[in-house]
């Protein structure tokens, strides 16, 4: 199981029900994640179609078709599909989660499998495939990657992404679908597929399981496709002589070039496999004259032959027993009819033909060996010998010329220059032809000298979502895996607010290609804690990854005692995680007691109140103030009022 820290899907809730946990695998059409079904409290695998395919009706239709095809099947050897839907612009499909490996992983670890292991896996695959064929579904993409081997021993067939309802000739609708190594000849030549095409793919898989390699290989896909269309699959025992001949017959039957010579569907092949398994376990007794033998044939899918009817064909497939069990699981005894006799004759003819082919094959091998020896001399040390261009990148020009000359080639320096992101100037950046090319001895190799990294324009990524910015910059620069996340109200959360170079400075409009850069990404504004208690504000800011300091409380006429008035970072600009936020805390309004000035000279009373910080008003002629006394104040003496409040003084002249 793999996980991608920067994958935006991790942690996302799909359709209000499926919580994405980690990434399992990624394919050409979709990505599979491990998720939790919050409604049923179980682990599931959720397959989400790639966003760039959401507008492609063909891909979306195929994605929905996969879910419907698999959902129609209820079989222990088919991966169950639980749900399918659309969340925003994402099409998704929910399947059962099977922790384990694929058959491809098993083949990579062990190379080839034993006949017993092969039979166990093929039996399970045929069981699931038979259910699909019975439901009228052709898989069309059968390969080891789609066979799942669970940790608890279950074997299941999955990925019906290319499946279609079967008709007489189910066309692909486009060039070729599926994996080229397992495509049937009719798919290659005519672009049509039915249940027998799945059987062909299974035959190729059986060959690969038994021998550890595929029957057809080539440097280009078209070479492999040509072999599928024109060559017959060889018997696995030619590679592994110890294999039972019954498995040879099964593989050759399943992988016949002509669809008419294969089993009609997975059910028929499963019956055949069960009989072969019984025969390999020794269920038939050698020498039994009335034993029933069941043989397959291209024209009659099931031919039942008695032991007596098989007299004289003991050389079939190398057997020394009169009893063969290779074919349908349905046994019967009694005399054979005309169809049975025709089938026996047909099988005897095939056996003799195979024996003749064996002699010709031996002669061909001898001839080819001689040709290989002669060819090896001609091209190895004779007139046709060739030389390989050595790897001289990063070397000085003189050293490169020496190595190329030692390899039997000629070297020349071009006047052109080559920029290179990692090779220093004056060193070899590349050769033409490229390193590893095979050339006639004495051929010319041109050396191109590096001018260092090229200076390129920096794309505008400020304001873009982080994932989009990484996609834009990835081919041009060495983008740091970890972004510098900062709090700011300049950009929404997740958007890029700056691009820094290796020294932490803002990247200019141009820069060297593949130079290291770091994205500064917005975490949104610093949490607003004004109006909260000091404890609540501190907890909120620390949960966001920030440190907290408080100033001495200050009087505030509008904010209650112990409540945050404001929160400010210590420095200007975007705030890093771990930075300190300073809280200004209120200690409520500044209340003072109104002094008692009644009876004092009016002028002295006014001055005393002003000295206490009050704003004093009075309605008395200034001319008479020296001879007047204060007789009252509003508010009255002794009342608590906020410092700086307005007080009215009333005076009276006394004679």
Automatic annotation (TrEMBL):
<protein>
    <recommendedName>
        <fullName>non-specific serine/threonine protein kinase</fullName>
        <ecNumber>2.7.11.1</ecNumber>
    </recommendedName>
</protein>
<dbReference type="InterPro" id="IPR000719">
    <property type="entry name" value="Prot_kinase_dom"/>
</dbReference>
<keyword id="KW-0812">Transmembrane</keyword>
<dbReference type="InterPro" id="IPR008271">
    <property type="entry name" value="Ser/Thr_kinase_AS"/>
</dbReference>
<keyword id="KW-0418">Kinase</keyword>
<feature type="domain" description="Protein kinase">
    <location>
        <begin position="18"/>
        <end position="274"/>
    </location>
</feature>
<keyword id="KW-0723">Serine/threonine-protein kinase</keyword>
<dbReference type="GO" id="GO:0045717">
    <property type="term" value="P:negative regulation of fatty acid biosynthetic process"/>
</dbReference>
<dbReference type="Pfam" id="PF00069">
    <property type="entry name" value="Pkinase"/>
</dbReference>
<feature type="domain" description="PASTA">
    <location>
        <begin position="588"/>
        <end position="655"/>
    </location>
</feature>
<dbReference type="GO" id="GO:0004674">
    <property type="term" value="F:protein serine/threonine kinase activity"/>
</dbReference>
<feature type="domain" description="PASTA">
    <location>
        <begin position="520"/>
        <end position="587"/>
    </location>
</feature>
<feature type="domain" description="PASTA">
    <location>
        <begin position="384"/>
        <end position="451"/>
    </location>
</feature>
<feature type="transmembrane region" description="Helical">
    <location>
        <begin position="358"/>
        <end position="379"/>
    </location>
</feature>
<dbReference type="InterPro" id="IPR011009">
    <property type="entry name" value="Kinase-like_dom_sf"/>
</dbReference>
<keyword id="KW-0472">Membrane</keyword>
<dbReference type="GO" id="GO:0005524">
    <property type="term" value="F:ATP binding"/>
</dbReference>
<keyword id="KW-0547">Nucleotide-binding</keyword>
<dbReference type="Pfam" id="PF03793">
    <property type="entry name" value="PASTA"/>
</dbReference>
<keyword id="KW-0808">Transferase</keyword>
<dbReference type="InterPro" id="IPR005543">
    <property type="entry name" value="PASTA_dom"/>
</dbReference>
<keyword id="KW-0067">ATP-binding</keyword>
<keyword id="KW-1133">Transmembrane helix</keyword>
């Amino acid at each position: 199981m793999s996980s991608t820290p920067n994958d935006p899907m991790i942690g996302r809730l799909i359709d209000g029900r499926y919580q994405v946990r980690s990434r399992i695998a990624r394919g050409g059409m979709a990505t599979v994640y491990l998720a939790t079904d919050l409604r049923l409290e179980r682990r599931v695998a959720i397959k989400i179609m790639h966003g760039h395919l959401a507008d492609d009706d063909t891909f979306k239709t195929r994605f929905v078709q996969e879910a419907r095809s698999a959902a129609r099947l209820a079989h222990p050897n088919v991966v169950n599909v639980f749900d399918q839907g659309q969340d925003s612009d994402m099409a998704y499909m929910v399947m059962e989660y099977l922790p384990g490996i694929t058959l491809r992983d098993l083949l990579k670890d062990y190379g080839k499998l034993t006949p017993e292991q092969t039979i166990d896996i093929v039996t399970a695959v045929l069981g699931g495939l038979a259910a699909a064929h019975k439901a009228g579904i052709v898989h069309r993409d059968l390969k080891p990657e789609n066979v799942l081997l669970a940790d608890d021993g279950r074997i299941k067939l999955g990925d019906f992404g290319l499946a279609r309802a079967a008709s007489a000739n189910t066309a692909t609708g486009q060039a070729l679908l599926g994996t080229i190594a397992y495509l049937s000849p009719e798919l290659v030549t005519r672009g049509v597929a039915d249940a027998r095409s799945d059987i062909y793919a299974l035959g190729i898989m059986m060959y690969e399981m038994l021998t550890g390699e595929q029957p057809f290989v080539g440097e280009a896909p078209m070479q492999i496709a040509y072999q599928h269309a024109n060559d017959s699959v060889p018997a696995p025992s030619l590679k592994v002589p110890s294999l039972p001949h019954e498995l040879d017959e099964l593989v050759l039957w399943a992988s016949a070039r002509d669809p008419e010579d294969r089993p009609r569907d997975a059910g028929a092949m499963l019956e055949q496999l069960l009989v072969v398994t019984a025969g390999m376990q020794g269920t038939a007794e050698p020498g039994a004259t009335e034993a029933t033998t069941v043989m397959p044939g291209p024209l009659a899918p099931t031919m039942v032959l008695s032991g007596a009817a098989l007299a004289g064909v003991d050389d079939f497939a190398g057997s020394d027993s009169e009893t063969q069990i290779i074919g349908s699981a349905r046994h019967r005894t009694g005399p054979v009819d005309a169809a049975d006799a025709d089938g026996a004759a047909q099988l005897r003819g095939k056996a003799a033909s195979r024996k003749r082919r064996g002699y010709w094959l031996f002669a061909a091998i001898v001839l080819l060996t001689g040709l290989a020896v002669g060819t090896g001399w001609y091209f190895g040390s004779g007139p046709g010998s060739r030389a390989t261009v050595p790897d001289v990148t990063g070397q000085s020009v003189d050293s490169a010329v020496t190595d190329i000359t030692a390899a039997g080639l000629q070297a020349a320096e071009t006047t052109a220059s080559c920029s290179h992101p990692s090779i220093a100037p004056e060193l070899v950046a590349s050769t033409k032809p490229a390193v590893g090319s095979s050339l006639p001895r004495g051929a010319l190799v041109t050396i191109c000298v590096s001018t260092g990294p090229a200076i390129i324009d920096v794309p505008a990524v400020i304001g873009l979502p982080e994932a989009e910015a990484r996609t834009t910059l990835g081919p041009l620069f060495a983008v740091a895996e970890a972004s510098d996340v900062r709090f700011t109200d300049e950009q929404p959360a997740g958007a890029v607010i700056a691009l820094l170079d290796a020294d932490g400075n803002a990247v200019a409009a141009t820069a060297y290609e593949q130079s290291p850069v770091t994205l500064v990404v917005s975490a949104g504004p610093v949490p607003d804690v004004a109006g909260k208690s000091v404890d609540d504000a501190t907890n909120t800011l620390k949960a966001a990854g920030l440190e907290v300091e408080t100033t001495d409380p200050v009087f505030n006429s509008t904010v209650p005692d112990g409540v945050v008035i404001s929160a400010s970072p210590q420095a200007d600009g975007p705030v890093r995680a771990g930075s300190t936020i300073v809280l200004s805390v209120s200690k409520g309004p500044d209340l003072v007691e109104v002094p008692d000035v009644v009876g004092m000279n009016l002028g002295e009373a006014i001055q005393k109140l002003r000295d206490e910080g009050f704003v004093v008003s009075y309605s008395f002629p200034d001319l008479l103030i020296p001879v007047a006394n204060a007789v009252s104040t509003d508010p009255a003496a002794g009342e608590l009022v906020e410092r700086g409040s307005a007080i009215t003084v009333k005076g009276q002249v006394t004679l």
